[in-house]
Amino acid sequence: MTEHETIPLAGVIGWPIAHSLSPKVHGHWLARYGLAGAYVPLGVREGDFGSALAALPKLGFVGANVTMPHKERAFALADTRSDIATRLGAANTLVFDPGQGIMADNTDGFGFIENLRERVPGWNAGAGPVTVLGAGGAARAVIVALIEAGVPELRLLNRTRSRAEALRDGIAPSVSVLDWSEAENALAGAALVVNATSMGMAGGPDMALTLHELGPDAVATDIVYARGETPFLTAAKSRGARVVDGFGMLLHQARPGFERWFGRAPEVDDALRAAVLT
Ligand code: ATR
Predict the structure, then answer these.
(1) Cα-Cα-Cα-Cα dihedral of 194, 198, 199, 203, to 10°?
(2) Mind listing the pLDDT tens digit for each residue in 13-25?
(3) 87 within some domain
(4) Residue 135 alpha carbon, nearest atom of ligand 1
(5) Residues 133 and 92 in one domain
């Protein structure tokens, strides 16, 4: 086989990996655009990540997505890193370049903002304060992306306050950390409220907030995808707020990797949504 006949391979590395929707996303785009290539789930245990990663370029892989529990290790092992990956200390998208080695990027924040822009036409980061509930791994990229997008005020609340303070001190000095007991009040006047907690997720704790201070002009969004409407979004809707689920974030974060690996900027549309949900 000559170099030109090599089929570009990519995949998602994680453990566990069976639940990942990324193979469906990229598989749909490859078929839709008639591109040569394949995208596969790569179940790799924590201790095997370094050796597995080193082998991929030799096997014909042009890059990979990285998910739990490998995002920080992928960042550490890369040869070059984007500014946003450096700020977050975590990578979700890798490009294997024959000249530059392993290049690490993080597209989670991009996916979050693009999803909002798609689902709420005219969404404007400057419209008002943003309240973020939760300070786990999923919250980090979103908070940095919102600050970069120009939100005027970001209120961060987490059940364990010290985690919110550590997040602020590490990557987002401009956020205001409030106490979890203030969660309802912190919704007053918010233009956007982001649920980055596991509240209301399948298998997670019950939704403990009523959102009675949420205004009808607000937008409410979950950043973790769950099939069906989450109790958080149901509560927000009952307050008259516009709601955006977390599914589109998953779809949009996949775009930069696909373009880099397979050479075509893909679209997020209803056909993709239907293909991924079946
Ligand atoms: P991830 O990295 O996916 O965000 P995580 O680190 O386990 O996952 O974070 C889950 C988030 O949900 C955290 O913000 C967590 O709060 P703590 O830091 O206090 O654990 C939040 N969370 C989990 N159960 C909760 C509950 N019953 N009420 C409010 N927040 C909760």
Answers:
(1) 150
(2) 999 999 999 999 9
(3) yes
(4) 14
(5) no
